[in-house]
Amino acid sequence: MERRLYSGRDVKRAHSIDDLRAMARRRLPNFCFEYVEGGAEDEATLRRNRDVFGEIAFLPRTLVNVEKRNQSVTLFGARSASPFMIGPTGYSGLMFREGDVKLASAAAAAGIPFVLSNVSTVALEEVVRRAGGRVWMQVYMYRTREFLAKLARRAQAAGIEALVVTTDSAVFGKREWDLRNYIAPLKLDWRNKFDVLRHPRWAANVLWPHGMPRFANLGDLLPPGQNSVKGATITLGQQLDPSLSWDEIRWLRDLWPNRLIIKGVLGAPDALRAVQAGVDGIVLSNHGGRQLDSAVSPMDVLPEVVEQVGGKLSVMLDGGFRRGSEILKAIALGADAVLLGRATTYGLSAGGQAGAERAIEILQTEIDRTLGLLGCPNIAGLDSGYLRYLRHASPLPQTRTQARHAHDEALLA
Ligand SMILES: Cc1cc2nc3c(=O)[nH]c(=O)nc-3n(C[C@H](O)[C@H](O)[C@H](O)COP(=O)(O)O)c2cc1C
After folding, report:
1. Which of 340, 361, 353, 372 is nearest to 13 (CA)?
2. Main-chain phi, psi angles of 142, to 5 degrees
3. Annotated active-site positions, please?
4. Average pLDDT over residues 47-63
5. Does any ligand 1 atom lie closer than 6 A to the CB of residue 87?
6. I need a labelling partner for 199 at 20 to 30 A (CA). Which of 151, 234, 252, 409 fits?
7. Is 326 helix (H, G, I), strand (E, B) or coil?
8. With contact defined as beta carbons under 8 Å apart, do 196 and 167 qualify?
9. Is the pLDDT of residue 392 over 60?
10. Whose CA is closest to 61, among 383, 403, 292, 390?
11. Which residue, by CA, sits nearest to atom 29 of ligand 1?
């Protein structure tokens, strides 16, 4: 017999991120849900991001006093209530009115950082002002460097703590399930138009009274009147710079005085280059399976990256995290923090700020419970001794890993 999920709208009745996902599926028209959900091409990367967690099991300790439990961590010298934050997701205003502010406010209320995507529908200054809390901002390296410099100056004036440069998107990945909804770029087919009519709750919240939300940070980059999704998508496509190299990161390093983080590293050699470029942190990421298909999961390479650069910069990662226990597996392998993409977007899509807050609350309680069951009351004491690999697929056997590092170091010398 098929098991039945809760079918209502009260986000408090969601017990897992999967429950929020099911609620998001019901509230959003198909084309919006697919924008969030899908991965590139055969979605092998997307699957790998989830499958990797099943290969790592916990080895708990027993008869440990776990009456008081602590999951807070220090990130760049300041406390974060939990070892995770909300990562950048562009165009969140399509899921819920002023989605960026709702996500940022949920993060601030929970005492965790929020990373604003530069393709937001609320201006960065307004997000910082209305949400409070720790706000970081993600940017792409646009061809028009002066625009990027201007954006960085605005971010600095607004009090943005860290700039996160996404480096895995010099070429657009192909999300085929997303594309199938359109007859031409951004022109929905009749089935999807009809589907929008069947979602009046979403339409009243997102479309009324101005229609599709517009991008709010790209004013200087887009030609006048072109901040619509269509205008922006065309211009952004032309603006993403496939000639990007580490030199530009050094240029940005000289320009930006606060924390600088690179998002999109997958492996120890690039992590070492990031150290050399003088950045403060990296986010191991395959963009949630939305760019290169058949890529490794950040979890696959986390141990070798930590071994090479741990202590020299902050090592964060994202991709596939839907449970508190999964976040703890990453922390046990040496990560400083985890970024969430879809998990909090499902919450936002299911119920705005309350939904995003519920997503965070679910993960925080899962982490708290798992620490108790592991016999590890303080997250600072969590290490790989609490884990066992079920199948020796990753990381690579020591000897081969070491040989590769020797080779990489020779390359870098
Ligand atoms: C709807 C959506 C929009 C995204 N937009 C951005 C973006 O604007 N900038 C960026 O660096 N990453 C973006 N990402 C990637 C996320 O920051 C993150 O790398 C990824 O979602 C992590 O995987 P997860 O969704 O499985 O947690 C987006 C992801 C999703 C799902």
Report:
1. 361
2. -80, 150
3. 287
4. 97
5. yes
6. 234
7. helix
8. no
9. no
10. 383
11. 89
